[in-house]
UniProtKB/TrEMBL annotation:
Keywords: ATP-binding, Cobalt, Cytoplasm, Magnesium, Metal-binding, Nucleotide-binding, One-carbon metabolism, Potassium, Transferase. It comes from the Eukaryota. SUPFAM superfamilies: S-adenosylmethionine synthetase. It is an enzyme of class 2 (transferase). Pfam families: S-AdoMet_synt_C (PF02773), S-AdoMet_synt_N (PF00438). It comes from Arachis hypogaea. PANTHER family: S-ADENOSYLMETHIONINE SYNTHETASE. This is methionine adenosyltransferase. Belongs to the AdoMet synthase family. Its cofactor is Mn(2+); Co(2+); K(+); Mg(2+). GO terms for cellular component: cytoplasm. Pathway: Amino-acid biosynthesis; S-adenosyl-L-methionine biosynthesis; S-adenosyl-L-methionine from L-methionine: step 1/1. Its main location: cytoplasm. The lineage of its organism: Eukaryota, Viridiplantae, Streptophyta, Embryophyta, Tracheophyta.
């Protein structure tokens, strides 16, 4: 069974059941033998109209200026970046994500025909703490758990995974930084840009990445918090783990000068209302950050220069 719940404000006619079945089929859930039959499973849909009180607080029933549109929910969002990889992401997360993508690839191209759709990966890396910066020393452990058919042997699984080694990402920590940064608890998927669980997390990732890419710090965490219906954030916080080339308060000032944290302006500046090209479908697997894809506009770096 697949259950689809939520609140939405739209005039579009959406065939939720078809979308669910098409996506289950695309993932590989095509028979009861693999855990779910896309064509015959039960799909339960319970989508309701968004609360008018929330709509009023966020949109003002479409009477507000763009910069006055409020946050669709309260919460804290965190963005993180580190110079240990070209993606400015933690090495553990990069390796686990690439292993996950490879596991899907070898299943779909039949290199490992015994692999089934569900699986997960974990990579443990030994680090050296260099005055706040994290230096990878060696890969300590690689764990790959995957659903498989009943006939394959353990030896075959071990040899194939060592030679080839995918998974569908669905957990909020894997969607972000693999445990390296704090998380406010809100999921990303199924939310429009007024829901700052997603848009707020995107803008603080861009801010943190820009700080590291600009050489202002080797690691950076940016935190933002919102109140429902309020356009401006309640707070913005920066921590460079003592790796900053300039004081954190000066980096915070640069961030506030270069990034607009109001929900509607985040949506405009990151072009979050644009669909097409399976843009948001791509975020459903392999994480939302560290991706080399023009649809992931929040990965674009803004070069930040401190004032002389």
């Amino acid at each position: 069974m697949v259950m689809v719940f939520g609140e939405i404000t739209t005039k579009a006619n959406v065939n939720y059941e078809k979308i669910v079945r098409d996506n289950c089929r695309g993932i590989g859930f095509v028979s009861a033998d693999v855990g779910l039959d896309a064509d015959n499973c039960k799909v339960l849909v319970n989508i309701e109209q968004q609360s008018p009180d929330i709509a009023q607080g966020v949109h003002g029933h479409m009477t507000k200026k763009l910069e006055e549109i409020g946050a669709g929910d309260q919460g804290h969002m965190f963005g993180y970046a580190t110079d240990e990889t070209p993606e400015l992401m933690p090495l553990t997360h990069v390796l686990a994500t690439k292993l996950g993508a490879k596991l899907t690839e070898v299943r779909k191209n039949k290199t490992c025909p015994w692999v089934r759709p569900d699986g997960k990966t974990q990579v443990t890396v030994e680090y050296k703490n260099d005055n706040g910066a994290m230096i990878p020393i060696r890969v300590h452990t690689v764990l790959i758990a995957t659903q498989h058919d009943e006939t394959v042997t353990n030896d075959k699984i071990a040899s194939d995974l060592k030679e080839h080694a995918g998974l569908t990402g669905r957990k909020i920590i894997i969607d972000t930084y693999g445990g390296w940064a704090a998380h406010g608890g809100g999921a990303f998927s199924g939310k429009d840009p007024t829901k700052v669980d997603s848009s707020g997390a995107y803008i603080v990732r861009q801010a943190a990445k820009s700080v590291v890419a600009s050489g202002l710090a080797r690691r950076c965490l940016v935190q933002v918090s919102y109140a429902i219906g309020v356009p401006e954030p309640l707070s913005v916080f920066v921590d460079t783990y003592k790796t900053g080339k300039i004081p954190d308060k000066d980096i915070l000032a640069l961030i506030k000068e270069n990034f607009d944290f109001s929900p509607r302006m985040i949506a405009i500046n990151l072009d979050l209302m644009r669909g097409g090209n399976f843009r948001y479908q791509k975020t459903a697997a392999y994480g939302h950050f560290g991706r080399d894809d023009p649809d992931f506009t929040w990965e674009t770096v803004k070069m930040l220069k401190p004032k002389a």
